[in-house]
Design goal:
Shape: elongated
Radius of gyration: 42 Å
Order of helices and strands: HHH
Helix content: over 70%
Structural class: mainly alpha
Number of helices: 3
Number of strands: 0
């Protein structure tokens, strides 16, 4: 009876050893999978970081060019000359030119119709001609 008990304990311990070996192999497979996944993600993130660093340097160059064109402080702290549209309270020159040109055209049309005493049909033709130019 003692011999059978010892044999059953030995059998139980062998099964326990076999089960622990299976768990160890499973844990090693999981570890290998996790390591491979980590390497893949690390590689992908390294590539993304390199691209981001490249984009950042390109954007810094563009920002430097833009700030120099606007006459603001550059990245290194120096002040450059130029037109600052954000700080200006008046309209930029190109907007002033467009407004003056369009107002002169309107004044020319108005004054012509009033001075020469054009009929209603002739006035309508003047406006139609102006509208067709915009299209």
């Amino acid at each position: 009876v003692l011999l059978r008990i010892k044999e059953s304990e030995i059998q139980y311990l062998k099964q326990e050893i076999h089960s622990l070996k299976d768990e160890l192999q499973s844990a090693l497979r999981d570890k290998k999978y996790a390591t491979d996944k980590y390497k893949d993600i690390y590689t992908e993130l390294s590539i993304v970081k390199a691209k981001a660093d490249c984009d950042i340097s390109k954007l810094k160059e563009k920002l430097l060019i833009a700030t120099e064109a606007l006459g603001e402080r550059t990245v290194d702290g120096t002040v450059t000359s130029g037109y600052d549209i954000m700080k200006s309270k008046s309209n930029p020159d190109f907007i002033k030119k467009e407004q003056s040109t369009s107002s002169k055209q309107l004044r020319g049309i108005r004054s012509k119709s009033l001075k020469e005493g054009l009929t209603v049909q002739e006035r309508m033709k003047l406006f139609e001609a102006k509208d067709s130019k915009k299209i």
